[in-house]
Design brief:
The chain is an alpha/beta fold and 629 residues long. It has 21 helices and 19 strands. It folds into 3 domains: 107 residues, no CATH class; 253 residues, no CATH class; 208 residues, Alpha-Beta Plaits (2-Layer Sandwich), CATH 3.30.70.1230. A hairpin with a 4-residue loop joins strand 3 and strand 4. Helix 13 packs antiparallel against helix 14 and helix 18 runs antiparallel to helix 19. It is rod-shaped and about 140 Å long.
């Protein structure tokens, strides 16, 4: 199987494996992923920012200012001024229950739709039956508009775990009437879990425990106002409107003070509103951590009530594991399938980016406009990993191509030239495919080597003969590489080299380098001959021919055997020039084009016209002296 086809198959299998892993994790995410997903949802909530709150939900807060006001009146009462009845017991929690009755009476003057008290009045009042009676009378005066809080308590002993309802004291429960009690229990959010609507506790947890379902306080408050929830509360999570204080809020003492309340600028907000009473601040509990910071229990109750009233609680979609898995699987498979149409990295990363942007945009629209959270972490991460997979595949493919090109060119040119070629792989491919280049071609051949070969073959000195030839060729190759030439091929004892291919320094520079190389090759052979004579070996002699001009450069051959070489008339001419060295009385000969290129740099000597086989008579040149290498 071709390498590219094999890579395609491997990439397709890896993409499919990634898609299946995304499907599995999306359908049944482990706890760490759920925590990260919840963190991402919280970030989206913060990015969206505050949302408008319904004006029909108003808070009456037992806050620090109310407690401080009660403390101030308590201090004043130690002097000549008596403490007003409405301020008695305000400085500390729990309050006398009669104060809540006072709150109900003051609020009743402004005609609220309903009032919910987020305080559990379990058991008789510690201040006596009169305290309960005062609150019960106030509840009765509201004519069925009051919702009281109850709490489900967990009972544990050595052999039993159960649930028990802690309702308000009997007089209060009777005053509230049927359907006037709502539980305040909620399921804690965080650590990978959403903040569920309080009704979830009643319909799910109590049902699982086999207990009779109870309505949440927020739902009872809506029913008492004559309204109904516009959403299935038990299947929704809280959709926060902002940080603490987002809802309209009145300090409780401002409502309790008759003079202040009669002219209060926000009194009109109470009319037909659902009013929620409860403690906030330092003495109101630690609160609940949300994307907008810590919210008090009263603010959480207001959020649940407003979500039910507007029907804008958050819902997770899809809810079942199988659709969630398909949601994570689909974008990865889509990109993987489209990526097979084209092999370019840009195309594939473009697909990943486009689908990722569409996914993020769709999730944002669903969240911001439709209050729907679409699982985003696993699908988005899978797409990013798919992009990394494509990038890694492209990198490996490029590295493989670079290695192939390096192996190809290292057979022909010096390592420094290879590095320069590989700096632009696209250009390197162009070189291999073929192009027209101005070069100087150098041929060198040993004189009388055929006769020497026959003689040594007859005397059994073949190994000695090959060793001497290899040493000669090795020395010639070193000289050629040192002068920036490319060894094109060996033809027996002949060497063909090219200057200006695959990269050129300019026609003149290449011609000069080729002639300097020829001079150095002659000097190198002289040094070898001195060594061989000392070893008792016969010296060798060579001729060198050069020609300059345009040739075709490329990788030529059959699919089973390719060679990077040059072809053209200048190749033949260089070979003919080398052949003339046997009769022209010079060891280095070159053509007129080469002479013209180097004439102003090297000492050129014209030898007149010589008959060149197959080309007629041509001017032939040599060097007056051998220049330094």
């Amino acid at each position: 199987m071709p390498s590219s086809s094999r890579r395609t198959v491997v990439l397709a299998l890896a993409s499919t494996g990634l898609a299946l892993a995304a499907a599995w994790l999306g359908a049944r995410p482990p706890q760490p992923l759920r925590v990260l997903e919840r963190g991402l949802e919280d970030q989206m909530v913060r990015l969206r920012g505050r949302r408008p709150v319904p004006q029909s939900v108003v808070l009456v807060a037992i806050d620090d200012s109310t407690l401080q006001q009660g403390a101030w009146f308590a201090d004043q009462s130690q002097g000549a001024s008596p403490i007003p009845g409405w301020a008695e017991g305000l400085s500390t929690l729990p309050w006398p229950r009669a104060r809540y009755g006072d709150l109900l009476d003051r609020l009743g003057q402004a005609s609220p739709a309903a009032v919910a008290i987020n305080v559990v009045f379990e058991g008789p009042s510690g201040q006596g039956p009169a305290d309960d009676a005062a609150l019960a009378a106030a509840i009765g005066r509201q004519q069925g508009r009051v919702a009281l809080a109850a709490e489900i308590m967990e009972i544990r002993d050595t052999s039993f775990v159960g649930l028990s309802l802690a309702p308000p004291a009997d007089p209060l429960r009777e005053a509230a009437g049927p359907g006037g009690i709502g539980i305040t229990n909620t399921l804690p959010g965080g650590q990978g879990e959403a903040h569920p609507h309080p009704q979830t506790y009643s319909e799910r947890i109590l049902a699982l425990a086999g207990a009779r379902p109870q309505k949440a306080l927020s739902q009872v408050a809506l029913e008492r106002s004559g309204r109904a929830s516009r959403q299935p509360d038990a299947r929704r999570q809280l959709n926060f409107y902002g940080p603490e204080g987002s809802f309209e809020r009145l300090p409780a003492w401002e409502v309790l003070d008759p003079e202040r309340w009669s002219n209060h600028p926000k009194r009109s907000l109470i009319r037909d509103a659902v009013v929620l009473i409860g403690p906030v601040g330092a003495q109101g509990g630690a609160g609940t951590v949300t994307p907008f910071g810590t919210l008090s229990g009263l603010e959480m109750l207001a959020t649940a009530t407003a979500n039910s009233l507007l029907g804008d609680g958050l819902q997770a979609w899809p809810a079942q594991p199988l659709p969630r898995g398909l949601l994570a699987l689909a974008p990865v498979l889509l990109v993987a399938a489209l990526a097979l149409l084209r092999a370019g990295l840009g195309w594939r990363l473009g697909l990943v980016g486009m689908v990722l942007v569409l996914q993020l945009a769709g999730a944002w629209v669903a969240f911001d406009r439709f209050n729907t959270w679409v699982p985003l972490l696993v699908p988005a991460t899978a797409l990013v990993l798919l992009g990394v997979l494509y990038g890694g595949d492209a990198y490996l493919a490029e590295e493989g191509e670079r290695r192939r090109l390096r192996r190809t060119f290292e057979r022909y040119v010096a390592p420094s030239v290879v590095a320069e070629i590989l700096s632009d792989p696209a250009a390197a491919e162009g070189i291999l495919r073929g192009r027209l280049l101005p070069v100087t071609v150098l041929f060198t051949d040993l004189k009388g080597f055929t006769q020497l070969t026959n003689a040594r073959s007859g005397s059994g000195e073949i190994e000695l003969h090959v060793r001497q030839l290899n040493r000669y060729l090795g020395e010639m190759v070193e000289v050629i590489n040192a002068h920036g030439g490319t060894v094109d091929k060996f033809i027996g004892d002949a060497v063909m080299a090219v200057f200006g291919s695959p990269l050129g320094r300019g026609p003149q520079a290449e011609a000069v380098a080729a002639l300097r190389c020829a001079a150095e090759m002659r000097r190198a052979l002289s040094r070898l001959n001195a060594t061989w004579q000392a070893e008792g070996l016969e010296p060798l002699d060579n001729g060198i021919g050069l020609a300059s001009g345009e040739v075709i450069v490329g990788q030529i051959g059959s699919p089973r055997r390719m060679e990077f070489t040059v072809i053209g008339d200048k190749v033949n001419l260089a070979s003919r020039m080398e052949g003339l060295t046997r009769t022209a009385g010079a060891s280095v000969l070159f053509d007129a084009a080469t002479a013209e290129l180097v004439g102003g740099v090297l000492p050129v000597q014209r030898l007149g016209e010589q008959a060149v086989k197959g080309m007629g008579k041509l001017p032939v040149f040599t060097l007056q002296t051998l220049p330094a290498g």
